[in-house]
Amino acid sequence: MTQQVKIWDAPTRLFHWSLVALFGAMWFCAEQGGEWLQYHIYCGVALASLLVFRLIWGMVGSQTARFASFVRGPRTILRYLRGELPEGEAPGHNPLGGWMVVVMLLALAAQVLTGLFAADVDSYLYDGPLAKHIDSGLAESVTGAHKLLFNGLLGLVALHVTAIILYRVVKKQNLVGPMLTGYKRMTGEKPRLHFAHGALALAALLLSAGGLYFTLLR
Questions:
Q1: CATH number reported for the structural domain that contains residue 104 in this entry
Q2: Residue 188 half-sphere exposure, CB side, CA atoms within 13 Å?
Q3: For the whole model, what pTM was predicted?
Q4: Which residues are listed as membrane-spanning (predicted)?
Q5: Tally of domains within the chain
Q6: What's the pLDDT at 136?
Q7: Is 109 exposed, middle or buried (0-12, 13-18, 19+ CB in 10 A)?
Q8: pLDDT (0 to 100) of residue 67
Q9: What is the longest distance spanned by two Cα atoms in the chain?
Q10: Which residues does residue 2 pair with via DSSP β-bridges, in sequence order?
Q11: pLDDT for res 3
């Protein structure tokens, strides 16, 4: 029997789509250059806040959002690849998708971290918030790494989108719909999932955003 099952909570879905929007905005601002770099920095700090929030939510949030629920070992991955893993054991991210999430988050964290120390090598008007704490030569080197990492991120994004398309075409699984609505069509026994209260998500977001604002922008 197929049934609609709530898989993703609102905070996780809002994080995902906010991340997509901020990534696009940062890309656009960086391409424009000049005064747009100031907005690139603002978006970068906002993105850093989201990443800290996701780290917190991955430890105390809803069951499917917790890293412990989707970061699996080799045996579980092999079971999934062989088609031996019941859907109820991995209602959220599948074992491969879970590791993709980890890689994406680490890559984004590296991108944001290098951006905080990067220098505006053209006008030196829009350096990263922490660039003043390191030598100018090192800041320029970090800027090069920042640009190089972005190309790697684009590759990961392309891989992510390709996987979504393949799951839709080959496995007939819609991965985008559940991340929009929170609900997924599943067969078999309905899994019992724990969902954290929204107030906890708000507290985590305020903690991450407030902490980074006072650390980087004041």
A1: 1.20.950
A2: 9
A3: 0.92
A4: 12-30, 36-57, 96-119, 148-170, 193-216
A5: 1
A6: 86
A7: middle
A8: 96
A9: 63
A10: 187
A11: 84
